[in-house]
Specification:
With 118 residues, the protein is an all-alpha fold. It contains seven helices and no strands.
Length: 118
C-alpha cells in the first residue's frame, strides 16, 4: 500500500511540476500572486482560493507540530504555504522513506515514539 501512496505522490508531484513550469514560462513567475489575489473578485474563485489557503494553513500547522524541532517546522510550514503541493508532496515522499513506510510515523512525526509508548 505504501508503494501506491509513493507512486501517487510522485505522479501528482511531476504533473504539478509540469503545470507550474508551464505557467511560469507562459505568464511569468512574478504573476502568480496577481492571479491568486486578483481572482478574489470572482465569488467562486474567491471561494476556491480561500478553501485552498485554509488547506495550506492546516498543512503548515501540521508541519510545525510534526517536525523534529519547532524551528525546522516553521521553515517547512513557510515552504509548504509558498510552495504548496510541490513542497508538501516531496516532504511526504521523503518522510515515507525516512520512516520505512510506517504510516503512523509519517503522520505523527516526532510524536510517534510518545504515541507508541502510551
Amino acid at each position: 500500500m505504501i508503494n501506491l501512496f509513493r507512486l501517487v505522490l510522485a505522479g501528482l508531484w511531476l504533473r504539478l511540476l509540469y503545470v507550474t513550469v508551464h505557467a511560469g514560462q507562459t505568464l511569468g513567475w512574478d504573476k502568480a500572486g496577481d492571479f491568486f489575489f486578483g481572482d478574489m473578485a470572482h465569488p467562486w474563485r474567491a471561494q476556491f482560493n480561500t478553501d485552498f489557503f485554509a488547506m495550506l494553513f492546516l498543512v503548515a500547522v501540521w508541519m510545525v507540530w510534526h517536525a523534529k524541532s519547532r524551528a525546522l517546522g516553521v521553515v517547512f510550514a513557510v515552504l509548504s504555504v509558498m510552495g504548496g503541493c510541490l513542497f508538501t508532496f516531496a516532504y511526504l515522499l521523503v518522510q515515507s522513506f525516512l520512516t520505512n513506510g510506517n504510516i503512523p510515523a509519517i503522520l505523527l512525526g516526532r510524536h510517534f515514539d510518545k504515541a507508541s509508548n502510551a
